[in-house]
Design brief:
With 300 residues, the protein is an alpha/beta fold. The chain folds into two domains: 22-174, 3-Layer(aba) Sandwich (Rossmann fold); 176-299, Hypothetical Protein Tm841, Chain: A,domain 3, CATH 3.30.1180. The chain is built from ten helices and 13 strands. It has helices at 63-71, 83-94, 112-126, 141-156, 161-174, 184-189, 195-203, 227-241, 258-271, 284-290; strands at 22-27, 40-42, 44-48, 51-55, 76-78, 99-104, 132-136, 176-180, 206-212, 218-225, 249-254, 276-281, 295-299. The strands form three sheets. A six-stranded mixed beta sheet has the order 10-9-8-13-11-12, sandwiched between helices. Strands 2-1-6-7 form a four-stranded parallel beta sheet, with helices on both faces. A three-stranded antiparallel beta sheet has the order 4-3-5, covered by helices on one side. α2 packs across α3. It is globular, with a radius of gyration of 19 Å. The protein starts with 21 loop residues before the first strand and ends with a strand.
Length: 300
């Protein structure tokens, strides 16, 4: 999908002291245990063959059910959050006298963030006294979830709206994230690899290792042969870059492969017992493009 240039809205409305409350809002691509934060999550649509479901709070499809259907051969797809839906969600809080910090899905992978910016332009005409700050996380899945989780923790400490927006922009440059994909056929259907590469890779048990680059786009950086070696790569990645995160938070995401996620979690906690490790699902919006068996890690 070609994504048009996005204007990041740094701050809209009246500046000044934070004498009113504000709400953090994100989207359903932020993979995390949503019960751990006080954040509004905007649901997103996913498709299985010709049927459309909703993933998010009060969604219409369970994560295991999604992966079961996908592994059975169902065609999968996703849709952006529309300007109309952003308007509906944002206005709910603006009408209550609250400001908004939206932490959005990477503009390098979707036009969803651009839609949020278009919505802000219209809403500020109706609520000129309010502030809406939209931050492009340049992230997805557990990396986006990690950034939002840390932002929610920081908000609970009493940080002001604009200061938190700047803090998240700084954190996104410091965060580490890596993915291993198990299902090459899903990457093939999404046009990310050729049919020939998918066939050879599947035959030889080649597992692509990916990261999210500085532009917020997925980038293949390595390949490992075999599932065990690919999981060890995530563990070694943490060992190499974990100096700042010891005693901090690590998020592990899995595409319906809980046992592998727990293996990685246990290996980290064995060597870094003071580190908090959160294991969470990779939801259908991301899973539609990465397939079952995806394993990922995010930390700072």
């Amino acid at each position: 999908m070609m994504v048009l240039p996005v204007r990041v809205v740094h701050s809209v409305g009246v500046k000044g002291v934070d004498d009113v409350s504000y709400q953090i809002i994100t989207d359903a691509t932020a993979d995390m245990d949503w019960s751990l934060w006080d954040v509004c999550v905007i649901p997103m649509e996913v498709r299985l063959n010709n049927l459309t479901y909703v993933h998010g709070p009060n969604g219409t499809i369970g994560i295991p059910d999604f992966y079961k259907a996908q592994q059975a051969g169902a065609e999968t797809g996703t849709s952006q959050i529309s300007p109309y839906e952003f308007n509906r969600v944002f206005e709910k809080y603006l009408s209550q006298g609250m400001d908004i910090l939206y932490l959005g899905f990477s503009s390098g992978m979707s036009g969803t963030f651009q839609n949020s910016c278009l919505t802000v332009d219209e809403l500020m005409k109706q609520y000129p006294e309010r502030r809406i700050i939209c931050v492009d996380t340049l992230a997805a899945s557990v990396m986006e979830g990690y950034l939002v989780y840390e932002a929610a923790r920081k908000k609970a400490e009493g940080i002001a709206l604009e200061d938190l927006a700047d803090w998240v922009k700084a954190l996104r440059k410091q965060a580490y994230c890596r993915f291993v994909v198990d299902d090459l056929n899903t990457l093939k259907r999404g046009g990310r690899i050729s049919s020939a590469n998918a066939f050879v890779g599947t035959t030889l048990q080649i597992k692509p290792i990916l990261k999210i680059n500085e532009k917020g786009c997925l980038q293949m950086i390595d390949k490992k042969r075999g599932r065990k070696k690919s999981i060890n790569d995530l563990l070694n990645y943490y060992h190499t870059n974990s100096m700042k995160s010891i005693g901090g938070v690590v998020v592990i995401g899995h595409g319906n492969c809980l046992e592998d996620a727990e293996t990685l979690r246990d290996a980290i906690q064995e060597q870094y017992p003071n580190t908090k490790v959160i294991v969470t699902h990779v939801g259908p919006v991301i899973g539609a493009h990465t397939g079952a068996g995806m394993l990922s890690i995010a930390f700072c």
